[in-house]
Design a protein that fits this description.
This protein is mostly helical. It has helices at 8-28, 58-99, 118-135, 142-162, 170-197, 202-228, 231-242, 249-253, 259-278, 281-309, 321-340, 349-372, 380-390, 393-407, 412-421, 423-429, 447-456, 489-500; strands at 107-108, 114-115. The chain has a two-stranded antiparallel ribbon with strand order 1-2. The model is unreliable at 466-488 (pLDDT under 50).
């Protein structure tokens, strides 16, 4: 009953004493190692002497020793449970204080990589914490391996809980990415040192190796997550400067040299030059992957917003649809050529470019079919391809309908009915939820979530029955509006505008 009042150090001393005492006991009396005592209780006294009082009753004595040993092991079990609870609580408290402390000052390594002291602070605590536990326990105590696993699991839980609180701008994302990557490396170094200074059983060592590998992989994935999160701050100035102009009459009639798409790639290149300094090469490659996806999503988002603002049911959104489609083709080429210019140094980028820019190609071809074909049935193949991206019939229907609304609004109802008639086939082709496979978890890097959010906020009255359930309006990971703005955005965009003029 008094165990909760003991400190962690006192509990460790108690655990160590029980283990030492019982081992000494069993070494002295090997016969009690596996002996189960007879019917005894803490209140009863064993009859240690025979009836004449001159000879010891060996069986009774052994039963008494076995009972005492088992009672001590019960105390050991309860003390161990209490210690592990305290270890979890103390680890959580310290890690919360580290993550939630005052804002850390960024610094640069000798090669310009941005870092903070987060990695050093966490591992300074964890090393002292684990060393204290180890020093109070016998070398072969099994509780140390369990305590290490608990500490590693709490490191993972607190990293997940506090990760997004670290991102404030492009520089903090880069510093966090480098910190998380260093944490992954520190885990391996720390565990190697622990194994060298401790004696673990084969099963305990396997358990520790699994926990170590899981945490290393976890930190590495968070390093990629942090690096790819910079797309928010790269595209923030782009959205502020050209989102309203893209697909406008000015874009269609006067910007004959694709000035807006050129501005997009110039802004991306401006940021990429900074990122090349701030991040190691393998993370820079992950950032380029994210920027390819973000470019496609931005372009589609602007196109859908154009459709949202257009309310006429017989007149297209553009003054000249053929010219608009030609302008789109040139925009796509400008952006694609920029990213393909980095394929030689990043060969894996080619696959991302092909996969993501396929969406823009299909969107444009779909609009071209809507403009040139007399029947909406020509859209069937495009519906199949786009549905694989959304795996939700309602989303596919609205998306296809909006593409028709841009160029032939009078046929929007027919194409929506066509999608509805294909519902069974579409669900078989891509069941709901299948769009998650291989998708990024970084906010703003999923086309389906971005489109779903736009439609959940849409006020345009579309032809036919339109119903979006509450479940369909689920939380959108694409919502990155809560992330603070990048202060230098206007300066960068202003400079680019001047250079283009």
């Amino acid at each position: 009953h008094n165990l909760p009042d003991l400190s962690s150090t006192q509990l460790l001393d108690l655990i160590a004493w029980v283990e030492f005492f019982c081992k000494t006991f069993e070494d002295a009396y090997p016969c009690i190692a596996e002996k189960k005592p007879g019917k005894m209780s803490a209140e009863s006294r064993p009859e240690l002497l025979n009836g004449d009082g001159r000879e010891i009753n060996a069986d009774e004595a052994m039963d008494g020793l076995a009972f005492a040993k088992n009672m001590l092991w019960e105390v050991h079990r309860l003390a161990k449970e209490e210690f592990l609870v305290k270890t979890r609580t103390q680890t959580d408290s310290w890690l919360d204080n580290i993550y939630g402390g005052s804002e850390r000052t960024r610094s640069e390594t000798t090669d310009g990589k941005l870092i903070t002291s987060l990695c050093e602070e966490i591992f300074a605590f964890v090393n002292v914490h684990l060393r204290t536990i180890r020093d109070h326990l016998p070398p072969k105590s099994e509780i140390f391996a369990v305590a290490v696993c608990i500490v590693l699991s709490r490191m993972q839980a607190k990293q997940l809980a506090h990760r997004d609180d670290i991102f404030h701008d492009l520089e903090t994302c880069c510093a966090a990415a480098n910190d998380f990557n260093r944490m992954s490396e520190h885990i391996e170094e720390m565990m190697s040192g622990i194994k060298e200074e401790s004696e673990f059983s084969e099963s305990d060592e396997y358990m520790l190796d699994e926990a170590c590998l899981e945490l290393m992989s976890f930190y590495s994935s968070h390093a990629v997550y942090a690096a790819q999160s910079v797309h928010v701050y790269v595209f923030e100035p782009i959205r502020e400067s050209i989102a309203d102009e893209l697909f406008s009459p000015e874009w269609e009639d006067n910007l004959t040299h694709n000035e807006l798409s050129t501005m997009v790639v110039k802004t991306i290149e401006d940021f990429r030059c900074d990122l090349e300094i701030y991040l190691p090469d393998f993370l820079l490659k992950k950032v380029l992957d994210a920027l390819v996806v973000a470019s496609v999503i931005f372009y589609v988002q602007c196109l859908l917003k154009k459709s949202e603002k257009h309310t006429l049911k017989t007149v297209s959104c553009f003054n000249d649809c053929t010219k608009a489609l030609s302008r789109m083709q040139a925009d796509i080429k400008v952006m694609r050529n920029y990213f393909e210019g980095h394929v030689e140094e990043m060969p894996a980028l080619k696959r991302t470019i092909q996969r993501e820019f396929e969406v823009l190609t299909i969107v444009r071809e779909c609009m071209s079919v809507a403009l040139t074909c007399d029947t909406v049935n020509e859209a069937t193949n495009f519906i199949y391809v786009l549905h694989k991206r959304f795996s939700e019939v309602e989303l596919t229907k609205q998306f296809i309908g909006d593409l028709w609304h841009l160029v032939v609004p009078s046929q929007e109802r027919q194409v929506r009915l066509l999608v509805e008639s294909m519902e069974t086939e579409l669900k078989a082709l891509a069941p709901p939820g299948s769009e998650m496979q291989g998708q990024s978890l970084v906010p703003g890097l999923r086309l389906d979530e971005t489109v779903r959010k736009l439609y959940s906020q849409s006020k345009r009255r579309r032809p036919g029955k339109l119903y979006v359930s509450i479940n369909q309006r689920r939380r959108f990971s694409a919502d990155s509006s809560n992330l603070p703005p990048r202060n230098s955005s206007p300066r960068r965009m202003s400079a680019l505008r001047n250079s283009l003029v």
